[in-house]
Amino acid sequence: MRRFLVAIDGPAGAGKSTVARKVADCLGITYVDTGAMYRAIAWKALNSGIDIMKEEEVAQLAESLDISLHPEGICINDHLLKNEIRTPEITSLASVVAKMPKVRRVLVNKQQQIAEHQSVVMDGRDIGTNVLPCADVKIFLTASIEERALRRYKEMKAKGMAVELEQLKAELQKRDENDCTREIAPLKQAEDAVLIDSTHHSVTEIVEKILHLCRNKLGDKE
Ligand code: CDP
Ligand code: CDP
Q1: Which of 76, 123, 139, 192 could form a disulfide with 16 if both were Cys (CB 3.0 to 4.6 A apart)?
Q2: Which residues hold ATP (predicted)?
Q3: Which residues contact 98 (CB under 8 A, 6 or more apart)?
Q4: Is the CB of 201 under 6 A from ligand 2?
């Protein structure tokens, strides 16, 4: 197979990472979770005593880190990061560092390098619009705010975390607003992206739909 690029963007809780991972598995190609990269920078800054509000310092940190992909998550300097980057604190700090143009420049560069010589399914907020504008298949995955909040609620409850549905919904709305209104690389649907609303559809249905689009495109490429 020639290099094949799939971009999946959308708001938090739409199902991007769950679906992207399965699509990548089915196609036998690499999955890249770009949200985990923003989370990893926020986590490392917090644990290195770096002032998270100082863009220059956070960008230098991002530049200095060796970021690699691992089947179970993301590694920075060979340290595998898992649940520690999924806490509410890191979720909120990731959204702060993601607004910084210098940090984005460093991470977008690293994301483009990963996709330079291999096929990938990459998910995030600006993949179809900015990171991989020439992707073969672009998906904009959404779901209603109620459904997205409920999914996150169930996920956190299952992990034994104490959460309130209404508070989760308010936090998701705030993060959506941050992502959609920031000056650099805001979350928006690329003109050539296929819009998929997952509100009333299972993970399997969404994966099948995306695989169908990929197979059509792969057929065209051959
Ligand atoms: O899992 P969830 O959708 O809640 O978040 P994530 O995909 O792990 O991303 C964490 C944060 O990184 C988001 O709130 C976005 O602000 C930011 N992000 C971004 O700005 N651009 C990307 N390509 C990926 C994530
Ligand atoms: O990456 P993103 O924030 O867009 O969402 P996710 O972390 O992949 O999905 C959030 C939760 O919704 C997960 O527990 C998924 O299993 C679930 N989900 C679902 O119930 N139905 C879908 N069609 C997609 C995701």
Answers
A1: 123
A2: 10-18
A3: 38, 104, 125, 179, 182
A4: yes
- Confirm or reject: Cβ of 144 under 6 Å from ligand 2: no
Binding residues: 10-18
Q: Among residues 70, 100, 118, which one ends one of the domains?
A: 118
Consecutive 10-residue averages of pLDDT for the chain (222 residues): 92 96 97 97 95 96 94 91 91 93 97 96 97 98 97 90 90 90 90 97 98 92 60
**Enclosing domain of residue 140:** 1-16+121-214
> What is the whole-number distance in angstroms between the Cα of residue 42 and the centre of ligand 1?
11
Q: Is residue 7 part of a domain?
A: yes
Residue at 23 is within a domain: no
CA atoms within 13 A on the CB side of 67: 26
Distance 190 CA to ligand 2 centre (A): 21
Domain co-membership, 61 together with 94: yes
Which pTM was predicted? Answer: 0.96
C-beta 39 within 6 A of ligand 1: yes
**What CATH number is given to the structural domain containing 80?**
3.40.50.300
